[in-house]
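Final report, closing paragraph on structural work. Over the funding period we assembled a curated collection of sequence-structure pairs, and we close with a single example.
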Amino acid sequence: MSIFKLGLIINPIAGIGGSVALKGSDGEGIAEKARLLGAQAKANDRAKLALEILLPYQNRIEIYTASGSMGAETARSLGFKVNVIYQSPSVETSAQDTENTVLALLDQNIDLLLFAGGDGTARNVCQMVGEKFPVLGVPAGCKIHSGVYAVTPKAAGRVVELMVTNQLVTLTEADVMDIDESLFRQGIVKAKRFGEMKVPSELRYIQAVKSGGKESDELVLQDIAADVINQMEDELFIIGSGSTTAFLMEELALENTLLGVDIVQHQSLIASDITEPQLWQYLEDNTENGVKLVITLIGGQGHIFGRGNQQLSPRVIKAIGKENIIIIATKSKLSALQSRPLIADTGDSELDQMLSGFMTVTTGYNDQVLYPVASPQ
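Its predicted structure, as stored:
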């Protein structure tokens, strides 16, 4: 029986700024600022979801990784055989630690590098690995534009499972994208292609590169906005991120946080770019009037939760209730998914399962379609 040599790198602070509206973890002092605001790192939890898929194959896998929270702790907690090939010199890890771990892995003849992070982590890996071995990303950051990531953590585990069990998996080149987080925090998306890496291209599990640009069919968007505005009475309306929800805010003549979460009541802006704790407080203080949540999907990927809207935490979504979620999208945006389901990847498996099934999507004025929503696989 051959042993599958799996490289593992976890960026432990990836995405830490998401739930507190900092739009990421890149930049000096951002992680510490996020912690002071009450944020908790989730990257190791996301990596664990991927690794748990591989538990039946523990005797066929050896993991090569960095010390502590960069991989060794999580892998050992699950019972995997672990080889520590890099020791981080400090508790607070950095991009340099990611790059140093990749350098150490170059000598280990690994079969695949599994890494957990966001686009910044993908860029760090790409800078060092080139095409020396295939890679696969576990989505854990706020920014996931790159095509090297699986659609969910569990999907990443499924791809590795195929390789461990000697299934035929095609390798292909996938783009590594990254954006300027300082502009991202101002609501400006400026993404560019940084490079490419080899990934196992199992299409059920690997995401497409995120579609960019605004919806082109303005008349359809006006109809969608009119439908939602017609429902606005006494309830709080929580407006999620994205270009489609941004159009709704434009029709209301309200300022909009393109990449954040805003609150509207009586068609007036109550709060903008709020954090998860602030959002939770609004929910607790407004139980009488009721709450609606307006969200859209990420073009080309289909995520409705778990990408770019970490302020919408599991407790927030549960408090709002599935029946009060309004999904808006043009039919062309849904058609671009090519029959793939929408994805709810909240980090809470029970909630993901509750959201799965068919949900109503508003596609025009008094025009809705039923569309399937899947929990992470």
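Residues 218-374 form one domain. Residues 361 and 369 are 5 Å apart (CA to CA). We thank the funder for supporting this effort.
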